[in-house]
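Let us work through a complete example step by step.
Step 1: write down the sequence.
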Amino acid sequence: MARTGNCHNIADFERLARKRLPAPLYHYIAGGADDERTVRANVEGFDRYNLVPDYLKDIRSIDMSRRVLGRDLTWPLLLAPTGMTRMFHRDGELGVAREAARSGVGYALSTMATSSIEDVGRASAGAKIFQLYLLNDEKLNFAMIDRCKAAGFDALCLTVDTVVAGNRERDLRTGLTVPPRLTPASLMAFSLRPRWCADYLTSTAFSLPNVAAAEGGGDLSTLSAYFAARMERNITWSAVERIAQYWGGPFAIKGIQSVRDARMAAASGATAVILSNHGGRQLDSAAPTIDLLADIVDATGDRLEIILDGGIRRGSHIVKALAMGATACMTGRPYLYGLSAFGAAGVARVLELLRAETERTLGLLGCASLSDLGRNHIRLATDVPDFLADKDSGRSATPLRNIL
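Step 2: predict the structure and record it as tokens.
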């Protein structure tokens, strides 16, 4: 039987998750919108940048701590909000939140979670963010915010890139439904995963408690349809200002992908933006977020924390983003693969690997702390050495700092 210690990178966990999940659920995690160009580009974008070490430095002790969204983190990572996490393993959101706290990173709970705001608040003393999907009823939105205040959440995160549902063709082909049920398209896929089926059938019935409290009860399928029908499709900057003022604490907007929107976020009361294309699950052909990062950092200065979401598979990816100026990074699929394969123990191992890779990369760069890390540690992979440049024409290799 496979053990967590036999997994040495995120790809190992993905392979095991694929073996252990019914195909519709694996593809729900792995898939994206349309042709899934952005899903691939988010990961591949990191390969455009090389790391440049500075040696002969004292790295006997490496400090990765940073304050993010009002909380001191041991290392600068947040676990992204993922809806209906308990579909993948019975440990669900509570197991993920506990492991995030143990690792010293932040955890973001989705409005569409299968654990309540209150239960997560009680389960974890770590840094907690609530991800709000805006409904077309301001009283219901503020009621969820009130619950977050009462449950001790540290920050609020408003997602703005789901006003129209992405076209996720994998889910149509595999016959995925919420909650999972046997259909002609999915019958064989579920029957091939008897252990998952046994866990699902013997676990507590699925619910969406954060939505149910707003709607007044109902089963999961009814709540999902209700919630989809009530999603606000006219999110305005004035609405953002009202939410920021009502919350009154660290406040992030998730889904920002342009300098203009980042500047508007700062002007509207946000303290952070999460640079995100929803993991390629919404607008296909959106740019990989790592390519957008430096411009947004430069445009907003110290007015906002900038959190990069998308494509993180290695600690070196985290370091590249931090070198470009990100405050922290956010990741979703990697911890879901760990959860699907081993439950909370898999999440713990994923975080252990990413933390070790991040620390090792910093050490190999000669950085004893995050404050030592900068754009001098990164260059474009396509830059050519000066001696190959056409000096007669006045062209030379372009330093990354001039591009970023």
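Step 3: interpret the result. The radius of gyration is 21 Å.
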